[in-house]
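User: quick one
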Amino acid sequence: MIVSAFFWLFASVLLVSAALVITLRNPVHAVLFLILAFFNGAGLFLLAGAEFLAMILVVVYVGAVLVLWLFIIMMLDVDFAELKAGFIRNAPLGLLVGGVLLAELLFVFLKWQPAPMAEKLRMAPAAQGMTNTEALGRILYTDHVYFFQVAGLILLVAMIGAIVLSLHHRKDVKRQDVARQVARKREEAVRLVDVEPGKGL
Amino acid sequence: MSIWNTFLPALPEMALAVMSMALLMLGVFFRKRASDIVNTLALLALAVTAVLVLMTGQQGAIFAFGGTFVVDSLARVMKLLILFATALAIIMSVGFMKAERIERFEYPVLMLLSALGMMAMVSAHGLIALYLGLELQSLALYVLAAMNRESVRSSEAGLKYFVLGALASGLILYGASLVYGFAGTTGFSGIAQALKGGAHLGVITGIVFILAGLAFKISAVPFHMWTPDVYEGAPTPVTAFFAAAPKLAAMAVLMRILYEAFPDAAEAWRQVVAFMAVASALLGAFAGLVQRNIKRLLAYSSIGHMGIALVGLAAGGMEGLRATMLYLVIYLLLTVGAFAVVIAMRREERAVEEIEDFAGLASTNPGMAFTLAAMMFALMGIPPLAGFFAKYFAFVAALKANMVALAVIIVLASAVSAFYYLRVIKVMYMDEPKGAVAEMPFELKLVSALSVVFALGMVFWPQPVMQLAQAAIRSLL
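Assistant: Done. Structure below.
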């Protein structure tokens, strides 16, 4: 009872905010509604028992991706009138691509039959009494720990490579050296000069 | 205890990974004179890893990480060779990098990480492990190729290698996904099991894509285009490294995947491998004729040699695989010797690499001329030298497998390529001297002496190399 009430709540707010994302004129408001949509999507995932996906959605999408988006939209001065200028001209192409996608989706849902063997090939679902997070963690950090570590090393090499190829220590740029600043003494920096009145230095 | 046993087969890899990260930290802390210290310690790290490889069991195949990682005789021998080649490359680069003012402590660390990727490749017993190892070694190699940031050609080499390498990785991934889709598993033994009843067309497409991607890594025709440009543009010691270690690793992977994952599709892949062998041998021979730059010449030479090495793989069986393995070992030592001389060619503080710059080297610097001449004769395959045995065994293997056309091509390509090897010797011994070149540094003398002794001495004592090749392929048969 309570679950289905929450389902309707999350689902309706999700749909309304998703519709607002693509109809609102102000892009900042649109992104804010997208955040709301993601929160409600996370709620639906929770109801479905996929708590890991729900948390990832909130942490990664809301916490990182959309905040980044918000910054980009607020910093860039996007002229939406100009963006919409080519709308009519490109509409047929867009409709064509959309039509192909729709046909493919219909094909998948109506005609596609998985091979009878495919069901058996599917990996066994998580064992009873184990949360999604734990099951995923086992796959990633226990079963495939070797892959995980090698992938980590690849990222390390990418980082070293980026630094090696792009970090220049240019001589003609002044850099801050805190230790030298602190160690500086009055005698090195200040020179007292006896200036005669009316003459200057 | 059980966890320890799971990780034990990968101990050399883990040790190398930890040591290279430690060297990275060390480099940051020492800053000023880091390069020398890190170079020395990197050699030490390679030695320690080699000892660990020798210690991880001597007999049979050990599987780890759910069967995706295997330590067998092929993996052990190839790992030792890779570590050896990496050590030689680091030794050869010390002086050159200093002279060119591009010494950086990241350089040996990247070499170590690349060697680590190669070790992961030769131990891979599944498509995912194979791909990850391949990426690890390639990514480090892209950076090494572009190491000389001030040089436009070096940056171009890095970029070219990166873009084409990414394409090759994409091909491998696409092939792997097809194979996975049709076989239902990514493990090599599982794939072999699934293909027992004959290979579906989709699997064969996947195999061809994987072969294409690996052909890129060993620079076999038709995926050789990057080789001359990258060889020419990259700093010479890096080129020497390219010519040696990655080819060993990629060829070992090719052997393993063809003979352990797709033995029942042999009819399909044999044609592809035979085509790559013929095309590479011929292109290497003919395109080398018009080269003026010694590094480009060696690039085409390497394409041709990889073609002949592939002949053994196409022929298959004990003879064929042993011929390929023997070829790799001999080619490794010969090419390293040739590059030792090319690295040492410095005139007025600048590296010279045109073939004309070698004019009269025999009178100005007889030691270098002799080394290069010995390497050229050996690469040509003149009978008592080491290169002859490599070609001879490939020839015999092709005949035994009833591939007469391949055997004829080997002889033909060798005859044509003899022209450009002889031209280098002629320029060195018969042309007017062009002015003295700098004295060869000690470390390069050491490496070239090793190669010369090997090239001349193998005829007297061939057993160790033969036994090494035999031991390597034992696990595939």
